[in-house]
Write a structure and sequence with these properties.
The complex is a heterodimer. In chain A, helix 3 (about 130-140) crosses helix 6, helix 3 (about 130-140) runs parallel beside helix 7 (about 215-230) and helix 6 crosses helix 7. Chain A is built from eleven helices and twelve strands. Chain A has two domains: about 35-115 and about 230-315, Rossmann fold; about 130-215, no CATH class. By secondary structure, chain A is an alpha/beta fold. Chain A has a six-stranded mixed beta sheet with strand order 6-9-10-3-11-12, sandwiched between helices. In chain A, strands 2-1-4-5 form a four-stranded antiparallel beta sheet, with helices on one face. In chain A, strands 7-8 form a two-stranded antiparallel sheet. A two-stranded antiparallel sheet of chain B has the order 1-2. Chain B folds into two domains: about 1-35, no CATH class; about 60-375, Orthogonal Bundle (ABC transporter involved in vitamin B12 uptake, BtuC), CATH 1.10.3470. The longest helix of chain B has 27 residues, at about 260-285. Chain B is globular and about 70 Å long. Chain B contains 18 helices and two strands. Chain B has helices at about 1-10, 15-20, 20-40, 45-50, 60-85, 90-105, 110-120, 130-155, 160-180, 180-185, 210-235, 235-245, 250-255, 260-285, 295-305, 310-330, 335-350, 360-379, and strands at about 190, 285. The chains are: A alpha/beta, B mainly alpha. Chains A and B meet through helix 2, helix 3, helix 4 and helix 6 of A and helix 11, helix 12, helix 13, helix 14 and helix 18 of B.
């Protein structure tokens, strides 16, 4: 049982090529529960597509504050499992509970509002938006302005001293009539998005269109966009796909820093080195079934896992 | 110096506009608005050629301007639906008709609805619902129609939505024609009320002769609408629409309530369509089903597409061209469908993103073209 209260290995934070992000102003997210308690529970989930069994009685839990790895060979059902958790598919049998509440069958955007965000294996940014705007869409998930509020600036709030305009008539007006919630949210969203871009290390190209960003930047932008929705659980679907070893090293540092902000992280990955290096616990799937679960050391020694990855030795048959 | 100038010229108009000082922007805006208000009196020689009443057979200039502005309101509304939310609505005339019929049904003494109310509540024969009350009624009716049409159909994507909305436009018109005891059927409703106003020279302020007053009224409403529409575009709502247009599933996973925002786009579009219809019906003072044929829907879509969808100013230009040009060149009236067809084909071939597209839209078109070419190369 790993100690969840401290980062699993503090030595690897010397990320290469990343901007210094130690001075970011990101507020740690509010967590309503204690570290180590069950956050998400996949309870005997089976998912069938016609005759194909994509997930077979899969059963595991994600604990608050941990980095959980979900691994398995190609086609093992990792992404399907992800999709079931984020509302894209509804399980045929079994339940998925988030903070004790059943979420199977809930619409994807509602699941996001509950506090689960994800990235995609094949990057799915909004290509015609700038990097900053992509992240702002994520921030909007937590914003409350309505269409009517945006149109008529009808919902006024009393601004704090810091939010007041600096001088002149605008300041007096804001004092008397308040400031529209939309304006404040827009401003806060923009600022937070910039901070997130800085956090993942791509702030230098904030105003470029997402489609023009290099591959590694796009991957990180997806993470920033997911973080913007202030998730308690963030699911990364093969975040290191196509990365070279140096970039993978960076990514491991980033994943740890995400956890340190208070997010729980679920990461699907092929690369065993990365998974073993960054996770607290690992769940292994093969052919839609769970074949092992445990700490990285336990999993790395598990003969079933070795067989799944390297194949059965011939004389075992 | 010349280098700076060259660099300046290289910038697109939008960039120059964004880069200009606030004072300049306000000054330009006020000048444009002032010029727009002055247009009905335009009589300075080289410019006067744009008037449509130079020959005796020409149409009344102010009336043409009024129609242009009404269609501009339509185009701004339809641009929200097609250009921003990416929903192809081929039945927009339905909302336009609803707006016109709402004011006629409740505001005209000639309408069977008003007559029924008169006899039921023992009111005088001159009584009708006051104009000021008709406006919210018309807006609410078209809004509700938008939500009713949108709620079940917005779950459809692409072509299916287009077909359903096409049907909706026809349903409204055919219903209006056949419900004799509600809408007077094909005979239409006369005495549609006009906005109240002081009498001048013994005539009501808004009458059939002084069309420039109608134009000014519509123009004022249009300016307000553009101002509000731009607010939407540059907010979380506009971002949500764009996200839905680009990748609906990813948007949904990022917490964008796709259906809700699409329904809002539809409702906003419907409301603006209804408002334009209200202005049209009130100015004509006569509403009949044949004024709302399905080809008007196509004209509306063509305005947005030719002008450049996704860009308010593109939609405005489209509305202007497609309304003004046929009126200006009335002597070639027989050639109108031909010219319209040729123009549409030319635009689709040479500039499928529209004359003044939003830049994002232009790139989306470019991407799709590449995809199609690659697919063709593969096959």
């Amino acid at each position: 049982m790993p100690d969840l209260t401290t980062p699993s290995s503090a030595n690897s934070d010397e990320a290469v090529g990343l901007e210094d992000t130690s001075d970011h102003d990101l507020i740690e997210i509010e967590t309503s529960g204690a570290v180590g308690e069950t956050l998400l529970e996949v309870d005997h989930v089976t998912l069938r597509f016609g005759g194909v069994v994509a997930l077979n009685d899969v059963n595991f839990e994600i604990r608050r504050g941990e980095i959980l790895g979900l691994i398995g060979p190609n086609g093992a059902g990792k992404t399907t499992c992800f999709n079931a958790m984020t509302g894209v598919y509804t399980p045929t049998e079994g339940k998925i509970r988030f903070k004790g509440k059943e979420i199977a069958g809930t619409k994807p955007h509602k699941i996001n509002h509950l506090g689960i965000a994800r990235t995609f294996q094949n990057i799915r940014l909004f290509p015609e938006m700038s990097a900053l705007e992509n992240v702002m869409v994520g921030c909007d998930a937590r914003h409350k302005s309505s269409v009517v509020g945006v149109l008529f600036r009808s919902y006024r709030v009393r601004p704090t001293e810091a939010e007041l305009p600096e001088s002149g008539i605008r300041r007096s007006l804001a004092k008397v009539f308040g400031v529209s919630r939309h304006t404040l949210e827009e401003r806060a969203g923009r600022r937070r998005s910039m901070e997130l871009l800085r956090f993942v290390g791509i702030a230098d190209r904030a105003h470029e269109l997402a489609r023009n960003l290099p591959y590694g930047y796009q991957r990180r932008l997806e993470i920033a966009r997911a973080l913007a929705t202030e998730p308690e659980l963030i699911c990364l679907d093969e975040p290191a796909a196509g990365f070279n070893p140096a970039e993978k090293e960076d990514l491991m540092g980033l994943i740890r820093r995400i956890r340190d902000l208070g997010h729980t992280v679920l990461v699907i990955e092929h690369d065993m080195k990365l998974v073993l290096g960054v996770t607290d616990r690992i769940v292994v799937l093969e052919f839609g079934s769970k074949i092992a679960e445990g700490t990285p050391e336990e999993v790395a020694r598990n003969p079933k896992v070795i067989a799944a990855y390297l194949g059965e030795p011939d004389d075992a048959a | 110096m010349s280098q700076i100038l060259d660099a300046y010229r290289g910038l697109r108009l939008g960039d120059r506009w964004d880069g200009a000082p606030t004072v300049v922007r306000w000054a330009v805006m006020l000048l444009v608005i002032a010029f727009a208000f002055y247009l009905p009196y335009l009589n300075i020689l080289p410019f006067a050629y744009i008037r449509t009443d130079l020959t005796s057979s020409g149409s009344d200039w102010a009336s043409v301007l009024f129609l242009v502005v009404v269609y501009m309101i339509v185009a701004v509304g339809l641009n929200v639906v097609i250009g921003l939310a990416g929903l192809l609505d081929l039945g927009y005339v339905g909302f336009y008709a609803l707006g016109a019929y709402s004011i006629a049904l409740f505001g005209s003494t000639n309408s069977p609805v008003v007559q029924a109310m008169q006899s039921k509540f023992g009111l005088s024969e001159e009584w009708a619902v006051p104009f000021a009350v008709c406006i919210p009624i018309a807006i609410t009716m078209s809004l509700i129609a938008g939500v009713f049409l949108g709620a079940p159909t917005l779950r459809l994507r692409g072509d299916y939505l287009a077909i359903v909305t096409l049907g909706f436009g026809e349903i409204i018109r055919i219903t209006a024609r056949n419900l004799d005891n509600v809408t007077n059927g094909a005979a239409g409703i006369t005495q549609v009320p006009v906005p109240p106003g002081p009498e001048i020279d013994g005539r009501a302020f808004f009458n059939t002769i002084d069309a420039e007053r109608w134009y000014w009224l519509a123009l004022t409403i249009l300016i307000l609408i553009i101002w509000l529409a731009r607010r939407l575009e540059h907010s979380r709502v506009g971002r949500a629409w764009l996200a839905i247009r680009e990748d609906e599933d990813a948007a949904s996973v990022m917490g964008v309530a796709g259906f809700k925002f699409k329904l809002w786009a539809f409702a906003i579009g419907a409301t603006l369509g209804g408002l334009a219809g209200l202005l049209f019906g009130s100015k004509q003072q006569y509403v009949e089903p044949n004024a709302f044929m399905v080809n008007l829907s196509f004209l509306f879509v063509a305005m947005v597409v030719i002008g450049g969808s996704g860009n308010i100013f593109g939609a405005l230009l489209g509305a202007f061209l497609l309304t003004y040009l046929p009126e200006r060149f009335r002597e070639f009236v027989d050639w109108r469908p031909f010219a319209f067809g040729v123009a549409l084909v030319l635009v689709m071939i040479l500039r499928p993103q529209g004359l003044v597209p939003s830049r994002r839209r232009a790139r989306e078109f470019e991407d799709r073209r590449h995809e199609a070419e690659e697919a063709a190369a593969d096959a």
